[in-house]
Write a structure and sequence with these properties.
Elements: H1 3-11, E1 16-20, E2 26-27, E3 41-45, E4 49-58, E5 70-77, E6 82-87, E7 100-107, E8 110-115
Parallel strand pairs: 6-8
Antiparallel strand pairs: 1-2, 1-3, 4-5, 4-7, 5-6, 7-8
């Protein structure tokens, strides 16, 4: 299982989580085996809904694909896994930790969420 498969599914509108095949639950996207039982992992569909766990606003342009300022979110999905994502339409009031977000799209190798 690699990140490209996760991004390919997200590009079709199907966000997913890594989950233990034995039923231990969801785990980190960087995991290669279940941290509880060392068993294999599989991709499971995710709702695409979550809350902001933390975020950072970047005021320097580190890549030509992202014009500053842009907001990077650390989102905790309803299923329990967490992932880094970009905030779509960052204009308006800044986000707050705990704000609800929803999967919006993929682009330039990143997952984008919008405030609900």
């Amino acid at each position: 299982m690699d990140v490209s498969e996760i991004l390919e599914r997200a590009a079709t509108g199907k966000l997913c989580c890594l989950s233990c095949r034995s039923g231990c639950g969801v785990t980190d996207y960087a995991a290669r085996v279940c941290p509880k039982c060392s068993g294999p992992l599989e991709l499971r569909a995710a709702s695409g809904k979550g809350r902001i766990h933390s975020f950072a606003v970047f005021h320097t342009q580190y890549t030509s694909e992202l014009a500053a300022p842009y907001t990077v979110l650390f989102v905790e999905l309803e299923e329990g896994c967490r992932l880094a994502a970009l905030l779509d339409s960052p204009k308006g009031p800044p986000p707050k930790v705990g704000d609800p977000v929803v999967f919006a799209r993929t682009g330039s190798g990143a997952v984008h969420f919008s405030l609900q």
